[in-house]
Each structure stands twice: as structure tokens, then as C-alpha cells.
């Protein structure tokens, strides 16, 4: 009985101050799939608490409205942010696609490397979708294509990471994400007209945007990109300015919503 009284008084106090039991800012949910082929992905992600881990990035910000991160069956290979619903959806199908493509294309690497690529490709994709949520919910003004901006903010999260080994894995994962559908990556003769009208830039462009920011953020560590002509000098010359613009944008528009570090 005493326990109940204590609990009640805590509840009343928290209602008064609206703090202790405040509603969670980031809600994680795994919806079981109907398709048997997707069940292993549901089990795996849930048991590894993959969304809870991803939520860590979302929790860096103060959301004016709760944000839901959901894993579900979508009947398409995709991930999405649903504007107006404050909901990021990661489809089991995209995880299945990533796993299958990694196993088919990176068989010459060991299992640990392949698993790292799968995880970090998914992290990049999640951060891209989270960026859409940031733009919509925090009403961040955008001038130009939202997909390019979402990639840019996702790259910013990866490149600002303190641990260099982790940065490398994140970049390798994103690279695989861009390359996975086209084994002739860079061979633009295979594109049909629709590829150019898509809301997303070509995967190759998304990949070079990533290299450009990486080169600007880490001029010494990533110098090889230019030396080995992986990033053409003609583009590299613009990268410091591009990175500065991205940093200024993030600092001015998104940083004000950062959760203040507790002292
Ligand atoms: Zn997008």
C-alpha cells in the first residue's frame, strides 16, 4: 500500500512538473510482417534492437512532436519518411535486399566485413530518412532538391563522428548502398530516360557528393581520393566550399534543436 501511495505521489508530482514521466520523444516499433520470408529480418532487427540503436541519432535533437521509427513490411524495397505523420519507416524488404546484394557481390570479403557493410548501409539510409523528418518537423527551409539535402545531412552525421574507424565503415556502407543495384557503376549508357527525371540524383552523383564532403572534411586522410583520381580534381576544387556551406546550414538551421549536453 505504501508503495502505491508513493507511486501515486510521484505520478502527481511528475504531472505537476511534467518532466519525470514525459512522453518519449522517439518511439520505436517493430510491426510483424505477414510475409514468411521477411520474418527472419523482423526477428533479427528486433532482437538486436536495431531501431533503438538508430534512435540514438534522433535523440540528439529536441522534437516538438514525438517521432516514430517503425520497421514494417511495405511490399516494396524502400524506406521512407511520411510527412505530416512524423514517422520514419524502414521496410523489411530493404534489409533483405541489402543482405542479398552484399552476399552476392562481396563474397570475396570475410563475414565480418560483409556484416559491417550491411549495417552501415542501413545506417546511412536511416539517417537519410531521418533528415527528411528533420526538414519536415523542424520546418527547415530548403532551397533546392530535398533528396540532395537529405544525403548531405546524413553525410554530415557520419563525417562528424569522432571515431575515424567508424567514419570509414559508414562511408563504405553508403558507397555500397549507392552501388548495389548497378554492377557497371559509372556506366551511364544503361540509364533510361526516367533515371534522369527521378527526384533522386543518380547514384553515382550521390556517391561523388559523399566523396567531395569527405575530402573537404579530411583533407589529409582523404587526399588519396584525388591523388588516385577517384575524385576528379575539377570537382575536388569546389569541395571545401561545399562542405562549408553544409556546415553553416547545419549549424544555423539544425544545431539550435540539439539536446543540450548535461553538465
Ligand atoms: Zn529521400
TrEMBL record:
Matching InterPro entries, A to Z? DUF4344 (IPR025644)
The source's domain of life comes to Bacteria
Q: Which UniProt keywords apply?
A: Signal
**By its UniProt entry, which Pfam families does this protein fall under?**
DUF4344 (PF14247)
Q: What span is annotated as the signal peptide, if there is one?
A: 1-22
Put simply, this protein is called: Metallopeptidase
Which species is the source of this protein? Deefgea chitinilytica
Amino acid at each position: 500500500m505504501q508503495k502505491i501511495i508513493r507511486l501515486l505521489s510521484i505520478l502527481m508530482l511528475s504531472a505537476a512538473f511534467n518532466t519525470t514521466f514525459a512522453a518519449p520523444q522517439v518511439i520505436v516499433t517493430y510491426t510483424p510482417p505477414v510475409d514468411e520470408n521477411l520474418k527472419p529480418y523482423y526477428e533479427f532487427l528486433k532482437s538486436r534492437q536495431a531501431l533503438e540503436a538508430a534512435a540514438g541519432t534522433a535523440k540528439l535533437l529536441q522534437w516538438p512532436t514525438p517521432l516514430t521509427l517503425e520497421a514494417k513490411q511495405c511490399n516494396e524495397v524502400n524506406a521512407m519518411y511520411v510527412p505530416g505523420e512524423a514517422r520514419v519507416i524502414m521496410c523489411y524488404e530493404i534489409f533483405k535486399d541489402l543482405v542479398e546484394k552484399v552476399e552476392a557481390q562481396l563474397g570475396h570479403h570475410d563475414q565480418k566485413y560483409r556484416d559491417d557493410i550491411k549495417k552501415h548501409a542501413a545506417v546511412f539510409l536511416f539517417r537519410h530518412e531521418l533528415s527528411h523528418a528533420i526538414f519536415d518537423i523542424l520546418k527547415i527551409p530548403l532551397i533546392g532538391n530535398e533528396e540532395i539535402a537529405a544525403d548531405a545531412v546524413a553525410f554530415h552525421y557520419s563525417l562528424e563522428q569522432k571515431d575515424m574507424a567508424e567514419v570509414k565503415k559508414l562511408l563504405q556502407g553508403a558507397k555500397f548502398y549507392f552501388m548495389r543495384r548497378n554492377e557497371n557503376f559509372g556506366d551511364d549508357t544503361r540509364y533510361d530516360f526516367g533515371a534522369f527525371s527521378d527526384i533522386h540524383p543518380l547514384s553515382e552523383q550521390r556517391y561523388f557528393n559523399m566523396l567531395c564532403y569527405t575530402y573537404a572534411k579530411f583533407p589529409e586522410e582523404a587526399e588519396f581520393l584525388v591523388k588516385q583520381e577517384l575524385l576528379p580534381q575539377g570537382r575536388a576544387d569546389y569541395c571545401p566550399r561545399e562542405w562549408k556551406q553544409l556546415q553553416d546550414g547545419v549549424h544555423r538551421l539544425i544545431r539550435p534543436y540539439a539536446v543540450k549536453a548535461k553538465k
